[in-house]
Specification:
It contains 11 helices and 2 strands. It has helices at about 5-40, 45-65, 65-90, 100-120, 150-170, 170-180, 185-190, 195-215, 225-240, 245-265, 275-285, and strands spanning about 140, 145. Strands 1-2 form a two-stranded antiparallel sheet. The longest helix has about 30 residues, at about 5-40.
């Protein structure tokens, strides 16, 4: 134990935890955005993340090379956005006034349907996606080797955070969406089509799930069931961060990613328990979450 916890080992695990946190943030920020604007606890969010990973693999394999990878990062979120738009226009738009429990049950059923459709489309085989050559290998960080692709994730996460913040606080759409979340009737009374505002908000949140699935593809096995773990983690993240709070989702993701990495150093066989212990402590001390909830 004493030999394993070195400065190099701690730094490596910390960076791994931060890169994992970036994926969690990208996915949970989409879920948090949907919660904040539409008040919909979208359990199917994890299934869209899984579909994003499968689509990214299909696109990268079909096109090949470096261009295939970058094209996958673009087309996978767009494919998820199209699926979510169809679901929103045909199903969700009729249910926004229903109770949260009914919405929860509906999105759970949608998760099961999307899981079966994914199995029918891609089968049950495991898949993997290879990062482009310049993102393969590792670099030296404080004397320890660290994967280049993880550094790439560390760069993408803040870009998504800043972009989402600018969209929600500095654009007309963001201001309208926040106003509609507070009083949709008043927004509709001044001539704004609230239905399409909600549709775009839902699509944006789901697009982030697809982006997370595409980005995580080179680091994990792409398989059925990968949606179950991510949806549990993201719901816990938005809960401890503050329901609907984007920056709370970032804080919760960092806590989740870092505590698991520290757990690997201290008690590797129980590493998965550490993030959940952190959730218990935070909700015990501050039941409303770290930051202000919009619910």
């Amino acid at each position: 134990m004493e030999q394993s916890i070195t400065l190099a080992g701690f730094t490596s695990q910390l960076l791994v935890g931060l890169s994992r946190a970036m994926i969690l943030f990208i996915v949970s920020s989409g879920l948090s955005f949907i919660l904040g604007v539409l008040r919909v606890p979208n359990v199917a969010h994890g299934s869209l993340y899984m579909i994003g990973a499968f689509v990214a693999h299909s696109v990268a394999t079909a096109v090949g090379g470096v261009s295939g990878f970058w094209l996958a990062l673009v087309l996978a979120p767009l494919a998820v956005a199209v699926i979510s738009l169809i679901a929103e226009r045909t199903l969700f738009c009729h249910l926004y006034e229903r109770e949260h429990l009914m919405l929860l049950l509906f999105t759970f059923a949608l998760m099961l349907i999307l899981g079966d459709l994914t199995k029918i489309t891609w089968g049950a085989d495991y898949r993997s996606l290879t990062a482009p050559p310049f993102l393969q290998g590792s670099v030296s960080v404080l004397g320890t080797a660290f994967p280049r692709y993880n550094l790439f994730l560390l760069a993408v996460g803040p870009v998504v955070a800043v972009g989402l913040w600018l969209l929600t606080s500095r654009t007309m759409f963001g201001k309208i969406a926040r106003a509609a979340a507070v009083d949709r009737e008043m927004v509709g009374a001044i001539g704004i089509n609230v239905s399409w505002v909600f549709a775009l908000a839902f699509v944006l949140g789901c697009l982030l799930a697809g982006l997370g699935g595409a980005l995580v593809s080179p680091t994990v096995s792409i398989t059925l069931g990968m949606d179950h773990t991510i949806i549990i983690e993201t719901f816990l993240i938005v809960t401890i961060g503050g329901l609907g709070n984007i920056w709370g989702a970032l804080a919760g993701s960092l806590i989740f990613g870092i505590t698991q990495s520290i757990g690997v150093l201290i008690l590797p066989q129980f590493a998965i328990v550490f993030p959940y212990l952190a959730v218990v402590v935070i909700l015990t001390l501050k039941p409303t979450g770290l930051l202000k909830s919009v619910w």
